[in-house]
Amino acid sequence: MPQIFLFNKPFGVLTQFTDGDGRPVLADYINVPDIYPAGRLDKDSEGLLLLTDDGKLQQAVSDPAFKLPKTYHVQVEGIPDDGALEKLRIGIKLKDGMTKPAKIARIEGEPPGLWSRTPPIRYRASIPDCWLEIIIREGRNRQVRRMTAAIGHPALRLIRYAIGEFELNGLQPGELRRVPDDLVERFVSGLPKNTSYRRRRRKK
């Protein structure tokens, strides 16, 4: 049975196990052999990262062709009006083309279970901020940040809360949790039948 692990990536940690410059990496938190991140999360973003020992699952999570929804909680500068949010819902033009329609909702107050970030974001007393829930099915580089910037509301903090059916659900920064086998089996059974399989081993 393949393994899937959920990891809450802290701010400032690279989505890789080694780094020649001595920056924080996954190996500083994870001591499970032969598992690899399925997809990436920017250094300055936080939240859910899936790791697995199965190449088929890596492909399914990271490849936009499989259209797994990814849910983000995003703190933005300013208060976007309905017109700005509608632009994200129907698709907005970025330098690499139009985005696909996204699901957008305002979050009243703060997201449930929010933890303190180290370092904290830089607040400006003269500029309000708010939280949005953004669900996309694409995987462009820094896409969510570019989307909110395109409507004039730069992201101050970005947390990935869910990938498909997998959620943080109380997982704290730096914590790793193994997904039960029955849930892994259900996920695998829902993958496209032509998904290629490959197993990778971590370089020593």
Q: Can you give a write-up of this model?
A:
By secondary structure, the chain is of the alpha+beta class. The protein folds into 2 domains: 1-66 and 167-204, 2-Layer Sandwich (Alpha-Beta Plaits), CATH 3.30.70; 69-163, Alpha-Beta Plaits. The protein is 17% helix and 26% strand. The strands form 2 sheets. Strands 1, 2, 3, 4, 7, 8, 9, 10 and 11 form a 9-stranded mixed β-sheet that branches. Mean pLDDT is 91; it is low at 197-204.
Question: Summary?
Answer:
With 204 residues, the protein is of the alpha+beta class. It has 4 helices and 11 strands, in the order βββαβαββββαβββα. Strands 1, 2, 3, 4, 7, 8, 9, 10 and 11 form a 9-stranded mixed sheet that branches.
SSE diagram, text form:
Layout: E1 4-9, E2 36-37, E3 46-52, H1 55-62, E4 70-77, H2 82-90, E5 93-94, E6 97-98, E7 103-107, E8 129-136, H3 143-150, E9 155-163, E10 166-167, E11 176-178, H4 181-189
Parallel strand pairs: 3-9
Antiparallel strand pairs: 1-3, 1-11, 2-3, 4-8, 4-9, 5-6, 7-8, 9-10
